[in-house]
Amino acid sequence: MSNFNLISLDMRMATDDDSHLPAYDHTKLSAVNTCPTWGILRYKMHKAMPNSARAMALEAGSASHEAFSAVRLYQYKAFQAKNKVQQDNVDFHGEILFKGGRYQRMYDILSDGATHRTNTINFAIEAVESCGFYDDLSDGRRTLSNIEEALIAYIDAYDMERYPLWIRDKSDPETDVGIEIPYNIVCTIGYQINDGAEQVCQARFTGKLDGLHYNKDELIIIEEKTGARLDDSWLSQWVLSHQITGYCLAATTFTGLPCNHALVSGMRIPIGKVPAEGIRREYVPRTPLMFEKWANWFVTTIATIDQYKDNVVDAPMYTHSCNRYFRSCSFLPFCACDTVEEKEHIITEMVDDEWDVLNE
After folding, report:
1. Is the pLDDT at 1 greater than 70, yes or no?
2. What is the pLDDT of residues 251-285, one digit of tens each?
């Protein structure tokens, strides 16, 4: 068994000169670990089966994230923007986050005579209703009305003053703030396998941070999640999750400040009979050993991609994942083919559907 020994982990923000380096985000890396065949086909080759059913869980989660961003923007506007420069910065980010006139429509809904709760709910719901999400007759749970009902419970549980947003420069009207931060980072990892010669893995690590806040004087990431249930099994997946660990590393690189703290915020869709039980916020801090394990995961997953990216037919099939999220994998017909020639033919019939987390 190979013994991974981390020698160095260096991360810096990418520049235009780094565009030749391959880019990996958590979704792509996690998919390859779930099943190399699926992960490489979908996220490396950017293929999809024609006429695939809608992924309602992902769509509902994406729509909810529009509202989560709106709540944070309102938090910034109403509780932290103390002067015209900072109010201009609110508008600057509003236009970036909600393009095509959406931000102006959201802004026009706000009322000076309304409570913060009412304004936040109206602001967030307009963000959802203008994002393009629509109901599917085949899914009665992930509906627009259920999302909006859950958002009301989310907003009621949201403390606008407990975790102030991170702001890079309060005197700059175009400064970075901790709302939906896209990052593009060059990650250089030096390591040994079985006490052999030092090897180096260099690639770009990309993604988006949902929320970057302060917990008193310390930086903390807040990662938003939606799901059908929020029990202890749900929590257990985030305690050690490489996604959270990678986000802490990204936050440190982006801000120049140490970030070992994280909070996972869960919202259940539908919210359930007791709304308060449908919202869960759990603290999941990171330790140095977790960062080392993340580096091991990053290196070994990229090695798997490099091994099979030009010959996905030979990639391993992890058949435990042929059924995920209560539905069959869309690539099941590809994997079930009897011959290599049939597999290669099916690839030619797939449609191109490029995945880029920075453009999602």
Report:
1. no
2. 999 999 999 999 999 999 999 999 989 999 999 99
For residue 315, pLDDT over 60 is answered with yes
For residue 8, what is the DSSP state?
E
Amino acid found at 305: I
Enter the tokens of residue 359: 């453009």
- Number of Cβ atoms within 10 Å of the Cβ of 242: 19
Q: What is the mean pLDDT of residues 126-140?
A: 95
Contact, 149 vs 91, CB < 8 A?
no
Closest CA to 225 of 263, 264, 262: 264
Predicted model pTM: 0.94
Q: Which residue has the higher pLDDT, 234 or 246?
A: 246
> What one-character-per-residue DSSP string does 75-104 give?
HIIIII--SHHHHHHHHHHHHHHSTTTHHH
Task: List the one residue out of 296, 284, 216, 279 whose CA is nearest residue 248.
Answer: 284
3-state secondary structure of 185: strand
* CA separation for the pair 212, 251 (Å, rounded): 8
Average model confidence (pLDDT) across the chain: 95
Angle (nearest 5°) at CA 212 between 202 and 292:
35
Answer positive or negative: Cα dihedral of 175, 181, 186, 191.
positive
Return the percent helix, strand and coil in the chain, to nearest 5: 45, 20, 30
DSSP string, 30-53: HHHHH-HHHHIIIIIS-EE-TTPP
> What is residue 167's DSSP assignment?
B
Type of residue at 122: N
Q: Which of 206, 226, 246, 211 is nearest to 355 (CA)?
A: 206
The whole-angstrom separation of Cα 68 and Cα 215 is 18
**Measured distance CA(97)–CA(239) in Å, rounded:** 29
pLDDT band with cut points at 50, 70 and 90 for residue 359: confident
| Bridge pairing between strands 218-227 and 261-268 | parallel
